[in-house]
Every structure is written in C-alpha cells, then in structure tokens.
Amino acid sequence: YIPKQNAQMFEYLTRLLARLEKNKHIGVLVVDGSRSSRSKMSSLLSRHNFITYNAANAQQSLELLHDHPDIKLMITDETLPDMTGVQLVAETRKLYDKDQLSIIGVSSNRSASLLASFIKSGANDYLNRPYCHEEFFCRIVQNVEYIEQIEAIRQAANSDYLTGLPNRRHFFNQVSNTIRRGLGCMSLALMDLDNFKNINDTFGHDYGDVVLKEVARMIMRHFSRFHVSRFGGEEFCIFLPNIEHEHAIKLLNDFREDISKKVIKSKTIRHSCTLSIGVTNKQNRTIESMLSIADQHLYAAKAGGRNQVVG
Ligand code: GH3
Ligand code: MG
Ligand code: MG
Ligand code: MG
C-alpha cells in the first residue's frame, strides 16, 4: 500500500527521471556576449543533462545551429556584439521554423515592448533577468516539449500504425522530391501478398497482422537504402533511385525468394506466405504514371501464377 501523497511523489519522480534521460539527446544553445552569463546558464542546463552549446555572438550561433542538428532550443540575450537579440531571432527564423527549433529571448530591462519584439520576430517565449531556477527550467522544458510533441505528431502522420513503415502520403512526398531532382535510372516496385485473404480466413486476423509486420520488417532490412512504404492493406511500394533496372529486379527477386522461404511464427501458428511484384523503370515520368505501369505488371504477376516478379 502506497499512501496517495507518496504515489504522487513517485509519479512525479518517474516523470522527472524520464525527462532527464531524454535531455541527454537534446542540444540547447546559449547566445550571450558575456562569458559569465553564458557559463551560468550552461551549468544550469548541464545539471539537467542537456547537451550545451555556447556562442558569444550571432555569427557563431548561426554556425553552431548549422553544424549541430541536435540543437532544439536557442536562448539568446537581448544585446549581442554583432546584432540585437531580436535581429538574431529574425535571422534564425529565416532558416529554422518553429517546428524545428524553439527560441527563448532573454531581457534584463523588463521592457514590455522588447518582449513583444522577441515574440513578433519569431521567439516562442522570453525570460526576464534575474530569473529563479525554477522558472528557468519550467520555460526550458515547456519549449523543448513543444518541439518533441510536434515531432511525435509528424512521426505519427507519416507512418503506418501497424508496421511502422512510412505511409502512402509520406512516400509520395519523398519520392516526388527525389523524382523532381531528376536522378538517372530509377525503378518503382509494387508488391502485394498472395492470397492474403485466405491467410486471414484460415488463421485469423491477428495472425494476418503478424505476417504484415514480419514482411514490413524484412522490407526495412532488404531495402533500407531506398524509399519504402506500406501502401495500404497488404500492398507495399518501393522506390529505387540510382540503380540499374537489372540490379533492381535482382534485389526484388531475392527478396521475394526470402519471403517465400520464411516461416512466420506467432504463439500458435507457423506458416509462410508469398508475394507478387510488379516493377517499372520508365524514366522522365511522374510517380503516378510509374505506379500505373507497376500495377499492370503486378496484375500480370498475379495472372501468371503469383510468387513472381514482372518488370
Ligand atoms: P491476391 O493474391 O489476388 O492479392 O489475393 P488476396 O487475397 O491477397 O487479395 P484480396 O484483395 O482479396 O484480399 C486482401 C486482404 O487483405 C483482405 C483484407 O481483409 C486483408 N487486409 C487488409 N489490411 C489488413 C490488415 O491490416 N490486417 C489484416 N490481418 N488483414 C488485412
Ligand atoms: Mg491487394
Ligand atoms: Mg487483390
Ligand atoms: Mg493480395
């Protein structure tokens, strides 16, 4: 039996420990012309496990941001040797959106208009000097969590819930960008599990899910260099840029063979499955037209007896 207060304390400490663990991977950049202010803030941040970076001026801070993508939060003083803090915020926002980097402006003169200028130029928050440690950390953690939440939402929006693979929309965005950059030879493969409805009907939907997850895991392993996605139901799509068509077909055929030999186990069931693949390598085309040709080839693979690659 744990009294309520202890239970609350336990929950609080658990959350705090989890936070401290996460902080080990988060960079915080302190921009301040004064060495003593910089080191004071940095040591406070280190105490909470953050990776700290220091810049004595705006130029240095932009360089550090460029070189260290782990920086999720920048704290800038109001006056810097080479520009004002507000100017630095505006310059930084031209390069990094609010969903990539949080910014806190620090002011010593409690000027209401300065605080407003910080926010207007793109800061997420501000801090008045002198500050107590508790307020300092509340603001730091709140702004770091904001970035983390956006990242979590982005991750959820881009991936398929069952398998964790990129979903169709994310795949379209990535592949359209790659095609627009106009790389040489590229292949697009559409794969579909064979007689998957039978697997569901015979062994149950839960086992069907196990099969889908295992196939996805093997896709990630075989095609980690390429763009992959769960396209829907029991269909997967793979885009292979910068590769000779014969080589792409060989990779896909090796994968098809691996899947057909794989015994997929659940607690009570051991079974295997096969898949059919349609592939195209037409150049100078849109993703939509490549998909439509791959789909025709997939149809031919099914009609030809399944468990085969048609390209
Ligand atoms: P074919 O060889 O022609 O592709 O036959 P098929 O049975 O695989 O094709 P069909 O399109 O008739 O059936 C696909 C099945 O995939 C039907 C659907 O219930 C199942 N399915 C789609 N999404 C999921 C899922 O997330 N989990 C499970 N377990 N089944 C799914
Ligand atoms: Mg299908
Ligand atoms: Mg079908
Ligand atoms: Mg199928």
Automatic annotation (TrEMBL):
Q: Where is the GGDEF domain?
A: 184-311
| Keywords of the record | Phosphoprotein
| The EC number(s) this enzyme carries | 2.7.7.65
Response regulatory domain mapped to chain residues: 27-144
For this protein, what reaction is catalysed? 2 GTP = 3',3'-c-di-GMP + 2 diphosphate
For the modification 4-aspartylphosphate, the affected residues are: D77
Which of the seven top EC classes does this enzyme belong to?
transferase
What name does UniProt use for this protein?
diguanylate cyclase
Species this chain originates from: Aliiglaciecola litoralis
